[in-house]
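A common beginner's mistake is to predict each chain separately and then try to dock the pieces by hand. The better habit, illustrated here, is to supply every component at once so that their relative placement is modeled jointly.
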Amino acid sequence: MTPEEGDAILRDYFAPWIQDLGLRVEEVGERHAVVRLPWSDALARQGGGLCGQAMMAAADTATVIAISSARGGFVPMTTVQQSTTFQRPVAGKDVLVHVRITKLGRTLAFSDVTLTPDGAADPAAHASTVYAILT
Amino acid sequence: MTPEEGDAILRDYFAPWIQDLGLRVEEVGERHAVVRLPWSDALARQGGGLCGQAMMAAADTATVIAISSARGGFVPMTTVQQSTTFQRPVAGKDVLVHVRITKLGRTLAFSDVTLTPDGAADPAAHASTVYAILT
Amino acid sequence: MTPEEGDAILRDYFAPWIQDLGLRVEEVGERHAVVRLPWSDALARQGGGLCGQAMMAAADTATVIAISSARGGFVPMTTVQQSTTFQRPVAGKDVLVHVRITKLGRTLAFSDVTLTPDGAADPAAHASTVYAILT
Amino acid sequence: MTPEEGDAILRDYFAPWIQDLGLRVEEVGERHAVVRLPWSDALARQGGGLCGQAMMAAADTATVIAISSARGGFVPMTTVQQSTTFQRPVAGKDVLVHVRITKLGRTLAFSDVTLTPDGAADPAAHASTVYAILT
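With all components supplied together, the output reads:
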């Protein structure tokens, strides 16, 4: 799979409200993906920080890209569980969403997701997700 | 606090992208809140089901309303952790987000959130959240 | 299923180290179970409080009892995910572990677990679990 | 801090039931720790696999060692939240518990924990934890 095929999955399978995040696939591989969440004032809550909801949504969405890449293309799947911690505020920066697939089973997949502001060393948030693969 | 004051918090403190969810406060109390996530095609992913990202975002947002109600008005706070399970698909229905505050400490608050399609008996999703209260 | 059959499952399927917790099944039903975690000094950490690890272990174990009861007897299953929040300390009291099965699917089951000191109104801890049912 | 000082923390602050796990500190550093969970038949459930409860307990316990190491010695702390996924069975092998502290704040610390059977490449389980530091 190429990043362009990843972007096509974002366009074809996700809700319009998720499209509004403007996510862009930067990198895909056998067991990982990197997706960019561009900074936008529309995602800033009162006070100017990036809303945590956008980070949870980006983590979930980027996992679909990573599992698709690991499977060689989109397959129907559904999120079973997502746990997210919020560790540092983000303001005025894109966030890079790094997904590693730690287990790709026949019916369940597990991922580890780190969300880091572009150029920063430390994560803003971390997520673990479990997906059911439906085919 | 009244539901109208809850709606004012939604307007004043949340990101424009969260406002797009069209959440409405139905009920607030000493230790709980009920918030409606109206059905919208903009929240439907390919296939017609409500996207899980909208449910995670609604759970997080509704918890802010419930903690504000428990505190008698909005206080600065930040999500520390959210765990969400996705149990049943939703299509074509509003979702009612029931939040119970199970612990309201001086610096940390805990909630239990059930998301149920309007008129249904069984939950579509469940979330547990931890918040840091900043004042 | 009866509480006695639940106790037999505890004896037959769990590790000796889990048996050391002395869990007792108090109640089982179509979609729920109540299990008692008896106070023991062996479970107290320095300072005298019940260790959180015992509460996580009790929540997991009690979910197996509840799913077994919902299925009419023990079935092979494995924990996929457990999220636990720790809300209040416990000292010198048994803890009652209330499990509700919120979804019993063909391959996945979801539970909601509240751990409350005997006689208390407020929870010490809360857990959400996801199980894969292997038959 | 040295591994020996880590082992002393295990002896001095944890419940006897946790001591029964036989955990040993292998490595400590500024932002990480490695703790060994030795294989024991007492931790095997029916069928011979390592019980998940032992892995949750080891992840929690090892995080205390890592935070202590990051702070230069034991400080009073309490687990706020732990999320654990179980990805692969373990049988007959020690498990190495790798903890990275991803944020060490004044009042909250966050860790990322990977549990891998000794000699294996892929994780058996993964945990994320949030701790409140009480001093």
